[in-house]
Specification:
- By secondary structure, the chain is an alpha+beta fold.
- The protein contains 2 helices and 3 strands, in the order E-H-H-E-E.
- Strands 1-3-2 form a 3-stranded antiparallel beta sheet.
- It is globular.
């Protein structure tokens, strides 16, 4: 059974995390995503866009900006 965990992350990461589509991202942005994935628990499966908004902080430690809740599943 999988257990969900949520992370507050930049909205523009959605395609890269959920669909593995890195089109339009810079090398620096891809590095930020890969660095985050190395430390994150679980695998990304969905995004809660109802929580979308401007946040001063996020779980990736990137600059302030538009973020949403990303749902990851941890296999147990």
């Amino acid at each position: 059974m999988a257990r969900p965990v949520t992370y507050l992350l930049p909205v523009y990461w959605a395609c890269a995390l959920v669909n593995d589509d890195h089109t339009g991202l810079s090398e620096e942005e891809e590095k930020q995503i890969n660095d985050f994935l190395e430390t994150a628990e679980g695998r990304p499966v969905s995004v809660n866009f109802e929580a979308e908004g401007f946040y001063r902080r996020n779980d990736a430690g990137t600059l302030p900006g538009n973020c949403a809740e990303f749902i990851f599943l941890i296999d147990e």
